[in-house]
Design a protein that fits this description.
The chain is low in regular secondary structure and 58 residues long. It is built from 1 helix and no strands. The longest helix has 8 residues, at 50-57. 0% of the residues are buried. The mean pLDDT is 80.
């Protein structure tokens, strides 16, 4: 599956997690959903990332 994720110029997402290019990320342990979750989301359509990054830019 191919997915897209929005970042700022330093590859940091809106939760403060810094990512690196060409690195695969995974979680160990129990997966938790919701606002207190520990998972990573991504979009399957590139255009959908604008819903997340544009909010940060305003």
């Amino acid at each position: 599956m191919i997915g897209y994720k929005a970042f700022d110029y330093d590859l940091v997402n809106r939760y403060g997690t810094k990512f690196e290019l060409n690195v695969e990320y995974s979680l160990s342990g129990e997966l938790k959903f919701g606002n207190d979750g520990n998972g990573f989301h991504f979009c399957t359509n590139l255009e959908d990332t604008l819903r997340y990054v544009m909010v940060q830019m305003l």
